[in-house]
Specification:
This protein is of the alpha+beta class and 70 residues long. It has one domain. 16% of the residues lie in helices and 30% in strands. It contains one helix and four strands, in the order βββαβ. The protein has a four-stranded mixed beta sheet with strand order 3-1-2-4, covered by helices on one side. β1 and β2 form a beta hairpin. The radius of gyration is 10 Å and the shape is globular. The chain binds zinc ion. Zinc ion (ZN) binds next to loops.
Length: 70
């Protein structure tokens, strides 16, 4: 099932912008997030997020994919 994905406009302390799905408890507010699109897998969303930010990570709560496996 496809989900809506967003990337946080603010980087975390490690410099990464985290990707979240719609409904995640860590999802930033509307002004603080960039809509990426609908995807079947978080790794696709991470790929798109990299067009916006060089350092992208996936939220450990809603995206159970580690960057090394992308
Ligand atoms: Zn999340």
């Amino acid at each position: 099932m496809a989900s809506y994905y967003y990337v946080d406009k603010n980087s975390k302390r490690d410099g990464q912008h985290h990707v979240h799905t719609k409904g995640c408890q860590h999802l930033p507010t509307l002004a603080q997030r960039q809509f990426l699109g609908t995807f079947y897998h978080s790794r696709h969303a991470v790929k798109v997020a990299r067009y916006y930010y060089p350092q992208v990570g996936s939220c450990e709560d809603c995206c159970q994919v580690q960057l090394g496996k992308v």
